[in-house]
Amino acid sequence: MKFKAGVKVTLKEGVLDPQGVTIGRALSDLGFESVIGVSTGKLFELEIDAESEAKAREIATEATSKLLANPVIEGYEIEVIR
Amino acid sequence: MKIGVVIFPGSNCDYDAYQAFKMIEGNKVVYLWHRSDDLLGCDAVILPGGFSYGDYLRSGSIARFSPIMKKIIDFASGGGYVLGICNGFQILLESGLLPGAMIKNSVLRFACREVILRVETNNIPILSGLKKGNLLRMPVAHGEGNYYADPDKVSELETGGRVVFRYVDKNGVVTAEANPNGSINGIAGIINERGNVLGMMPHPERACEDILGSADGLGLLRSLCAASG
Fold first, then answer.
1. Helix (H, G, I), strand (E, B), or coil: what is residue B150?
2. Are B104 and A18 inside 8 Å of each other by CB?
3. What is the ipTM of this complex?
4. Residue B188 and residue B145: Cα distance in Å, rounded?
5. Bridge pairing between strands B111-119 and B135-142
6. Three-state secondary-structure class, residue B51
7. Each residue's pLDDT tens digit in chain A (82 positions)?
8. CA A36, CA A20: separation in Å to the nearest integer?
9. Whose CB has fewer CB within 10 Å in chain B, the N or C terminal residue?
10. Between A11, A68, A70, which is nearest B94 by CB?
Protein backbone atom coordinates (compact mmCIF):
# COMPACT_ATOMS: atom_id res chain seq x y z
CA MET A 1 0.00 0.00 0.00
CA LYS A 2 1.10 3.53 -0.69
CA PHE A 3 1.20 6.08 2.09
CA LYS A 4 2.21 9.68 2.26
CA ALA A 5 4.14 10.92 5.26
CA GLY A 6 4.36 14.62 5.90
CA VAL A 7 7.39 15.37 8.03
CA LYS A 8 7.56 18.81 9.62
CA VAL A 9 10.99 19.73 10.99
CA THR A 10 11.36 22.83 13.14
CA LEU A 11 14.07 24.29 15.33
CA LYS A 12 13.84 23.38 18.99
CA GLU A 13 12.75 26.03 21.42
CA GLY A 14 15.70 28.15 22.51
CA VAL A 15 17.64 27.65 19.27
CA LEU A 16 18.09 30.96 17.47
CA ASP A 17 16.29 31.16 14.12
CA PRO A 18 18.03 33.98 12.21
CA GLN A 19 15.83 33.42 9.14
CA GLY A 20 12.66 33.63 11.19
CA VAL A 21 13.83 36.81 12.91
CA THR A 22 14.70 38.40 9.57
CA ILE A 23 11.40 37.46 7.95
CA GLY A 24 9.60 38.80 11.03
CA ARG A 25 11.34 42.14 10.62
CA ALA A 26 10.44 42.28 6.93
CA LEU A 27 6.77 41.56 7.74
CA SER A 28 6.79 44.29 10.33
CA ASP A 29 8.23 46.70 7.73
CA LEU A 30 5.37 45.68 5.42
CA GLY A 31 2.88 46.77 8.05
CA PHE A 32 2.04 43.39 9.57
CA GLU A 33 2.36 44.73 13.07
CA SER A 34 0.10 42.04 14.47
CA VAL A 35 2.60 39.34 13.44
CA ILE A 36 4.72 39.18 16.55
CA GLY A 37 6.81 36.11 15.81
CA VAL A 38 8.01 33.99 12.88
CA SER A 39 9.79 30.67 12.95
CA THR A 40 10.99 28.70 9.97
CA GLY A 41 11.23 24.99 9.32
CA LYS A 42 11.14 22.38 6.61
CA LEU A 43 8.39 20.20 5.23
CA PHE A 44 9.19 16.85 3.62
CA GLU A 45 6.68 14.62 1.87
CA LEU A 46 7.72 11.00 1.69
CA GLU A 47 5.91 8.50 -0.48
CA ILE A 48 6.18 5.16 1.25
CA ASP A 49 5.28 1.70 0.08
CA ALA A 50 4.48 -0.32 3.21
CA GLU A 51 2.07 -3.01 4.37
CA SER A 52 0.42 -0.88 7.04
CA GLU A 53 0.11 2.68 8.27
CA ALA A 54 2.03 1.75 11.41
CA LYS A 55 4.89 0.38 9.31
CA ALA A 56 4.88 3.52 7.12
CA ARG A 57 5.09 5.66 10.24
CA GLU A 58 7.96 3.57 11.57
CA ILE A 59 9.88 4.00 8.31
CA ALA A 60 9.22 7.75 8.21
CA THR A 61 10.33 8.10 11.83
CA GLU A 62 13.56 6.22 11.22
CA ALA A 63 14.32 8.23 8.07
CA THR A 64 13.66 11.47 9.94
CA SER A 65 15.77 10.69 12.97
CA LYS A 66 18.61 9.40 10.80
CA LEU A 67 18.72 12.10 8.15
CA LEU A 68 15.90 14.63 7.80
CA ALA A 69 16.26 16.24 11.24
CA ASN A 70 19.32 17.00 13.34
CA PRO A 71 18.30 16.10 16.90
CA VAL A 72 20.77 18.60 18.37
CA ILE A 73 18.79 21.57 17.07
CA GLU A 74 15.59 20.26 15.51
CA GLY A 75 12.39 18.52 16.50
CA TYR A 76 9.82 16.95 14.19
CA GLU A 77 6.19 15.93 13.73
CA ILE A 78 5.07 13.20 11.36
CA GLU A 79 1.65 12.78 9.80
CA VAL A 80 0.85 9.68 7.74
CA ILE A 81 -2.05 9.47 5.29
CA ARG A 82 -3.23 6.81 2.80
CA MET B 1 53.82 11.95 7.15
CA LYS B 2 51.03 10.92 4.81
CA ILE B 3 48.09 13.32 4.76
CA GLY B 4 44.80 12.51 3.03
CA VAL B 5 42.54 15.31 1.78
CA VAL B 6 38.98 14.14 1.13
CA ILE B 7 37.11 15.35 -1.96
CA PHE B 8 33.32 15.43 -1.76
CA PRO B 9 31.15 16.72 -4.60
CA GLY B 10 31.21 20.46 -3.91
CA SER B 11 34.44 20.59 -1.89
CA ASN B 12 36.29 23.73 -2.96
CA CYS B 13 39.20 24.06 -0.51
CA ASP B 14 40.60 20.63 -1.26
CA TYR B 15 43.38 21.95 -3.46
CA ASP B 16 44.27 24.71 -0.98
CA ALA B 17 44.59 22.10 1.77
CA TYR B 18 46.61 19.80 -0.49
CA GLN B 19 48.96 22.64 -1.38
CA ALA B 20 49.35 23.86 2.22
CA PHE B 21 50.20 20.44 3.62
CA LYS B 22 52.57 19.84 0.73
CA MET B 23 54.57 22.91 1.79
CA ILE B 24 55.52 21.16 5.01
CA GLU B 25 58.74 19.24 4.55
CA GLY B 26 58.53 15.46 4.78
CA ASN B 27 54.83 15.35 3.92
CA LYS B 28 53.23 13.22 1.28
CA VAL B 29 49.72 14.41 0.46
CA VAL B 30 47.07 12.38 -1.35
CA TYR B 31 43.45 12.94 -2.27
CA LEU B 32 40.78 10.60 -0.93
CA TRP B 33 37.68 10.27 -3.10
CA HIS B 34 34.34 10.32 -1.25
CA ARG B 35 33.17 7.11 -2.94
CA SER B 36 36.28 5.24 -1.88
CA ASP B 37 36.47 3.21 1.30
CA ASP B 38 40.25 3.20 1.49
CA LEU B 39 42.23 5.74 3.51
CA LEU B 40 45.41 4.67 1.68
CA GLY B 41 47.34 4.32 4.92
CA CYS B 42 47.17 8.04 5.74
CA ASP B 43 48.45 9.24 9.13
CA ALA B 44 45.93 12.09 9.24
CA VAL B 45 42.76 12.95 7.32
CA ILE B 46 41.59 16.43 6.34
CA LEU B 47 37.95 17.25 5.61
CA PRO B 48 38.24 20.44 3.56
CA GLY B 49 35.93 23.40 3.18
CA GLY B 50 33.35 23.90 0.48
CA PHE B 51 29.72 23.07 -0.05
CA SER B 52 29.57 19.28 -0.05
CA TYR B 53 26.44 18.09 -1.84
CA GLY B 54 25.52 21.74 -2.37
CA ASP B 55 24.84 22.09 1.38
CA TYR B 56 21.45 20.53 0.58
CA LEU B 57 19.27 19.60 3.56
CA ARG B 58 21.85 20.87 6.12
CA SER B 59 25.55 21.63 5.66
CA GLY B 60 27.45 18.35 5.90
CA SER B 61 24.36 16.20 6.42
CA ILE B 62 24.67 14.20 3.19
CA ALA B 63 28.46 13.99 3.14
CA ARG B 64 28.48 12.19 6.47
CA PHE B 65 26.95 9.14 4.79
CA SER B 66 29.66 8.87 2.09
CA PRO B 67 31.55 5.57 1.97
CA ILE B 68 34.79 7.35 2.95
CA MET B 69 33.13 8.75 6.11
CA LYS B 70 32.49 5.25 7.48
CA LYS B 71 36.24 4.63 7.28
CA ILE B 72 37.03 8.04 8.76
CA ILE B 73 34.71 7.40 11.72
CA ASP B 74 36.53 4.08 12.34
CA PHE B 75 39.90 5.81 11.89
CA ALA B 76 38.97 8.53 14.41
CA SER B 77 37.60 5.96 16.85
CA GLY B 78 40.98 4.27 16.73
CA GLY B 79 42.75 7.53 17.63
CA GLY B 80 43.60 8.69 14.09
CA TYR B 81 43.93 12.44 13.59
CA VAL B 82 41.13 14.19 11.72
CA LEU B 83 40.93 17.91 10.98
CA GLY B 84 37.69 19.36 9.65
CA ILE B 85 37.83 22.88 8.27
CA CYS B 86 34.67 24.91 7.67
CA ASN B 87 32.36 22.50 5.78
CA GLY B 88 34.65 19.77 7.15
CA PHE B 89 33.76 20.93 10.68
CA GLN B 90 30.07 20.81 9.76
CA ILE B 91 30.52 17.23 8.51
CA LEU B 92 32.23 16.26 11.80
CA LEU B 93 29.25 17.68 13.73
CA GLU B 94 26.70 15.91 11.54
CA SER B 95 28.59 12.63 11.84
CA GLY B 96 28.67 12.87 15.62
CA LEU B 97 32.47 12.88 15.82
CA LEU B 98 32.13 16.28 17.47
CA PRO B 99 29.18 17.51 19.58
CA GLY B 100 26.82 20.34 18.66
CA ALA B 101 25.47 21.76 15.42
CA MET B 102 25.79 24.79 13.18
CA ILE B 103 22.99 27.24 12.61
CA LYS B 104 22.86 30.17 10.21
CA ASN B 105 25.03 33.19 10.97
CA SER B 106 23.21 35.63 13.21
CA VAL B 107 24.51 38.60 11.22
CA LEU B 108 22.32 38.27 8.10
CA ARG B 109 25.19 37.66 5.78
CA PHE B 110 27.70 35.18 4.51
CA ALA B 111 30.82 35.89 6.56
CA CYS B 112 33.82 36.32 4.27
CA ARG B 113 36.58 38.17 6.08
CA GLU B 114 39.70 37.86 8.14
CA VAL B 115 39.28 36.93 11.79
CA ILE B 116 41.61 36.68 14.76
CA LEU B 117 41.68 33.46 16.74
CA ARG B 118 42.98 33.06 20.25
CA VAL B 119 44.65 29.73 20.98
CA GLU B 120 42.86 28.47 24.11
CA THR B 121 44.96 25.39 24.79
CA ASN B 122 48.13 23.70 23.64
CA ASN B 123 47.72 20.93 26.12
CA ILE B 124 47.05 18.28 23.49
CA PRO B 125 49.47 16.80 20.93
CA ILE B 126 47.57 18.16 17.93
CA LEU B 127 48.12 21.74 19.20
CA SER B 128 51.38 21.33 21.07
CA GLY B 129 53.22 23.32 18.40
CA LEU B 130 51.17 26.44 19.23
CA LYS B 131 51.38 28.81 22.19
CA LYS B 132 48.40 29.26 24.48
CA GLY B 133 47.05 32.79 24.20
CA ASN B 134 48.65 33.41 20.81
CA LEU B 135 46.56 35.28 18.26
CA LEU B 136 46.30 33.83 14.75
CA ARG B 137 44.96 35.69 11.73
CA MET B 138 43.14 33.71 9.06
CA PRO B 139 40.03 34.00 6.86
CA VAL B 140 36.51 32.69 7.37
CA ALA B 141 34.01 32.11 4.56
CA HIS B 142 30.70 30.61 5.63
CA GLY B 143 26.97 31.16 5.96
CA GLU B 144 26.42 28.62 8.72
CA GLY B 145 29.18 28.96 11.28
CA ASN B 146 27.07 29.85 14.28
CA TYR B 147 28.07 27.07 16.67
CA TYR B 148 25.28 25.79 18.89
CA ALA B 149 25.10 23.17 21.59
CA ASP B 150 22.80 22.93 24.58
CA PRO B 151 24.02 24.77 27.71
CA ASP B 152 25.15 21.57 29.47
CA LYS B 153 27.24 20.53 26.47
CA VAL B 154 28.75 24.00 26.15
CA SER B 155 29.79 24.03 29.80
CA GLU B 156 31.21 20.51 29.40
CA LEU B 157 33.31 21.74 26.46
CA GLU B 158 34.41 24.86 28.36
CA THR B 159 35.38 23.11 31.59
CA GLY B 160 37.05 20.26 29.71
CA GLY B 161 39.31 22.67 27.81
CA ARG B 162 37.82 21.51 24.55
CA VAL B 163 37.15 24.95 23.08
CA VAL B 164 40.49 25.33 21.34
CA PHE B 165 39.99 28.52 19.27
CA ARG B 166 37.88 31.59 19.97
CA TYR B 167 37.12 34.68 17.88
CA VAL B 168 38.74 37.72 19.53
CA ASP B 169 39.60 41.31 18.67
CA LYS B 170 43.16 42.52 18.07
CA ASN B 171 43.68 42.82 21.82
CA GLY B 172 42.74 39.20 22.33
CA VAL B 173 39.34 39.97 23.86
CA VAL B 174 36.14 38.11 22.97
CA THR B 175 33.70 40.72 21.62
CA ALA B 176 30.51 40.60 19.57
CA GLU B 177 32.20 42.56 16.75
CA ALA B 178 35.08 40.08 16.54
CA ASN B 179 32.65 37.18 16.17
CA PRO B 180 31.66 36.77 12.50
CA ASN B 181 28.65 34.50 12.99
CA GLY B 182 27.16 34.79 16.48
CA SER B 183 28.75 31.55 17.65
CA ILE B 184 28.14 30.89 21.35
CA ASN B 185 31.03 32.14 23.57
CA GLY B 186 32.90 33.08 20.38
CA ILE B 187 33.65 29.41 19.71
CA ALA B 188 35.63 28.98 16.48
CA GLY B 189 37.05 25.51 17.00
CA ILE B 190 36.55 22.51 19.29
CA ILE B 191 38.18 19.17 19.87
CA ASN B 192 36.78 15.78 20.88
CA GLU B 193 37.37 14.27 24.29
CA ARG B 194 40.24 12.11 23.14
CA GLY B 195 41.98 15.05 21.48
CA ASN B 196 42.33 13.59 17.98
CA VAL B 197 39.39 15.16 16.11
CA LEU B 198 39.54 18.93 15.60
CA GLY B 199 36.88 21.04 13.90
CA MET B 200 37.22 24.73 13.10
CA MET B 201 35.36 27.22 10.93
CA PRO B 202 38.32 29.47 9.95
CA HIS B 203 40.68 28.39 7.17
CA PRO B 204 44.31 27.78 8.28
CA GLU B 205 45.10 26.33 4.84
CA ARG B 206 44.33 29.71 3.27
CA ALA B 207 46.78 31.45 5.62
CA CYS B 208 50.04 29.64 5.00
CA GLU B 209 52.02 32.20 2.99
CA ASP B 210 52.71 35.88 3.66
CA ILE B 211 51.64 36.74 0.13
CA LEU B 212 48.14 35.56 1.08
CA GLY B 213 48.01 38.06 3.94
CA SER B 214 48.94 35.70 6.77
CA ALA B 215 51.05 32.63 7.36
CA ASP B 216 49.59 32.00 10.81
CA GLY B 217 47.82 28.83 9.69
CA LEU B 218 51.03 27.03 8.91
CA GLY B 219 51.95 26.54 12.58
CA LEU B 220 48.67 24.71 13.18
CA LEU B 221 49.16 22.43 10.18
CA ARG B 222 52.75 21.73 11.28
CA SER B 223 51.56 20.91 14.76
CA LEU B 224 49.01 18.44 13.39
CA CYS B 225 51.68 16.80 11.22
CA ALA B 226 54.09 16.52 14.16
CA ALA B 227 51.34 14.92 16.29
CA SER B 228 50.42 12.33 13.67
CA GLY B 229 54.05 11.39 13.04
1. coil
2. yes
3. 0.90
4. 8
5. antiparallel
6. coil
7. 999 999 999 999 999 999 999 999 999 999 999 999 999 999 999 999 999 999 999 999 999 999 999 999 999 999 999 8
8. 11
9. C
10. A70
